[in-house]
Specification:
This protein has about 280 residues and is of the alpha/beta class. It has a single domain, classed as 3-Layer(aba) Sandwich (Rossmann fold), CATH 3.40.50. About 40% of the residues lie in helices and about 15% in strands. The protein has helices spanning about 45-50, 75-80, 80-95, 105-120, 135-140, 160-170, 175-185, 190-200, 205-210, 230-235, 255-260, 260-275, and strands at about 5, 10-15, 20-25, 30-35, 55-60, 100-105, 120-130, 215-220, 245-250. A 9-stranded mixed beta sheet has the order 1-2-3-5-4-6-7-8-9, sandwiched between helices. Keywords: Hydrolase.
């Protein structure tokens, strides 16, 4: 069943592992998909959706175990970066998307990186707060600053929630109720199993992907992101890095698109124009 509010359609797509809640502005414009981060939800992109709708077909979804989507029926299979990517691809296939530009934030960026080889219909990718790391715990650690413990913690205390929200969205960013509700709602196994899979020897070599993929890749980070190792990200040999540089937004944290959409959105729009 589809409901429509303010010109935006809301519906559910049943996939192998979960029922996925989708936001879809419709229209004939270039499809643009937004993929949220760990313990978040699609509503975090409402500043981008409202600005892009009408010119683009804007899509956003809640990952399995997040937001208005259901928890996964097979959590070990679904709650990994490749598992999430396969679910996203299944949604896109079922709604008939033949070409798409993806913006992935944090975990969503890692899912987008997985899609570089899994989904040829993705014609461009922008990531934010997402170090493309090689396989193994030691290599993953190179891409991040110390202190990622909460990212893989199944059960959050009230204090954990406060710390996670502050670190993830920015101390000075608005912490709207839906943000906190999304953290509380998230299936704790989605954090635990995703993080375990991320550190395992069976994980995808995302560093190799960005060094070899021919799909245009844009990287936009907040310069004060508390999670990521900037020296590591700056030092990789990207094959198709947009504008041949990483965009760093001064004074912003892990979610610059939320903290300062007036600075972020023009960069996203410039990237999207390359595909029209």
């Amino acid at each position: 069943m589809t409901t429509t509010q303010n010109g935006i359609n809301y519906y559910n797509i049943q996939t192998r592992y979960a029922g996925i809640a989708v936001t879809d502005t419709g229209g004939s414009g270039l499809p643009v998909l937004f993929i949220h981060g760990n313990s978040s939800c699609k509503e975090i992109f409402h500043h981008q959706i409202n600005q892009l709708k009408g010119k683009y077909r804007v899509l956003a979804l809640d990952l399995p175990g997040h937001g208005s989507s259901s928890n996964a029926s097979e959590p070990r299979q679904a709650y990994s970066m490749p598992g999430f990517a396969h679910t996203v691809i299944e949604v896109l296939e079922k709604i008939g998307i033949n070409r798409v530009v993806v913006f992935g934030w944090s975990l969503g960026g890692h899912i987008g990186l997985e899609m570089l080889v899994l989904f040829p219909k993705m014609i461009g990718l922008m990531i934010c707060g997402t170090p493309p790391v090689s396989v193994g715990a030691d290599n993953v650690a190179l891409g991040f600053r110390p202190g990622l413990g909460l990212a893989g913690k199944a059960e959050f205390t009230e204090e954990d929630i406060k710390i996670f929200v502050s670190d993830t969205y920015g101390v000075n960013a608005p912490h709207e109720p839906f943000i906190i509700e999304a953290v509380i709602r998230t299936d704790g196994l989605a954090r635990q199993y995703m993080f375990e899979a991320f550190l395992s020897p069976q994980a995808t070599d995302q560093k190799l992907l960005v060094e070899t993929s021919e799909i245009p890749l844009a990287i936009v980070n907040g310069a004060d992101d508390p999670y990521i190792n900037f020296d590591y990200i700056d030092g990789l040999n990207y094959r198709t890095l947009w504008k041949r540089k990483i965009v760093s937004l001064a004074g912003l944290g892990h979610a610059p698109f939320w903290e300062a959409p007036e600075l972020f959105n023009p960069i996203l729009i410039k990237f999207l124009k390359d595909f029209q």
